[in-house]
Amino acid sequence: MPPDSPPAAIPAPELPTSTPPGLIALFVAFAKMSLAGFGGVLVWARRGIVDQHRWMTADEFNETYALCHFLPGPNIVNLSVVFGSRFRGIPGGIAAFAGLVGPPVVIVTILAALYARFGEIDALRRILAGVSCAAVGLLISAVFRMMMPLIRRRDLVGLVVLLAVFTAIGLLRLPLSAVLLVAIPLSIAITFARHRRVTA
Amino acid sequence: MNSDESPILTLVWTFGLMSLFAVGGANAAIPEMHRVAVDVRHWMTDTQFADVFAISQMSPGPNVLIVTLIGYSVAGVAGALVATLAMCGPTAVLAYYVSRLLTRSSHSRWPAIIQAALVPLSIGLMGASGLVLALTSDRSWAAALVTAVSAVLVFATRLNPLWLLLAGGCLGFAGVIG
Asked: For chain B, which has fewer Cβ within 10 Å, the N-terminal or C-terminal residue?
């Protein structure tokens, strides 16, 4: 569809074909996505919700995810609650949340118990040290990937804000809440001012 | 701080509050988790924190489950459950109400502005996470090299990240990382 068409003119998007999922279906679907999701569940959530079950169109999924991304907290957890409650109210939200978090929490708790018991074994220590070095690399590459659009747009103001937050939290190790209470209003004010200049 | 406070209660309000400040998701809150768990509360050592991060990355499920591991180390199974619910609950309730509000009045441009304003913040937080974790994990030049190589490989190729974690584990086992 053309990007400039007003929202009101859009005919009802091809409605997802299958019937709205029940509570058990929500739980099972989110449990499957979650258990498949090593190092991030988002890809699997999109695949399950849009491609496999056709519970949402790709656009609806993107909108829902954008909403959950701008809210604080674990994005995919927010997504499960918003998604489940859209179909089945609060019980649906809880079912999807329980599916997403429940089974992996059981696995992680077992791993935690094993770590508490065997964490001092030398071979395990060395393996975990190696894994954590590689895992930090994954995180750093994700940061650079997210920075690329800002660099491409030559978004200097955005990069300055980014660097300021990085310095306050990463180098000065200030408390998160204090930094955000300053940074969020400031960044919104800057964005709003630039937005007005562009649209004016 | 009050030291005879119940550890469960401390977990509830620590992670409940953190949940509402975790702009950019769980990975962006890692410096704060490290600050609280290692520096302020002394729940774990630097090395244990790096281990816990490694375990959470190797496990299936959302990244937020690192708090399950921190909770377990503080107060066992009950601590694991409480920390997880405290980190997910408040923001889940918030998400529920905001999504209902937005479906009713979706003509405002404020969501777009707020979202654009939060993007550089959350990248800055993630960058800080990378730095904090690199300082806790990379204790030798070889370790830093493994981090750098895995960052470049994931950035430049479509390799499944799980292979890099596996390779890191093998190098660690072989004693290369020291």
From this structure: N
Q: At what angle do helices B66-104 and B7-21 cross, to 10 degrees?
A: 40
Residues A93 and A192 in one domain: no
Q: Residue B147 is nearest to which of A86, A133, A173, comparing CB atoms?
A: A133
From A118, A136, A128, A137, select the one nearest B172 (Cα to Cα). Answer: A128
Whether residue A43 is found in the same domain as residue A83: yes
Mean pLDDT, rounded, for B89-108:
80
Assess B68–A contact: CB distance below 8 Å, yes or no. Answer: yes
A130 part of a folded domain? no
| Residues 6+ positions from B46 with CB-CB distance below 8 Å | B38, B136
Contact assessment for residue A84 and residue A26, using Cβ atoms and an 8 Å cutoff = yes
CA angle in degrees (0–180, nearest 5) for A140-A105-B85? 90
pTM higher than 0.90 for the full model?
no
| Cβ-based contacts of B171 with chain A (< 8 Å) | 130, 133
Domain that holds residue A12: 7-118
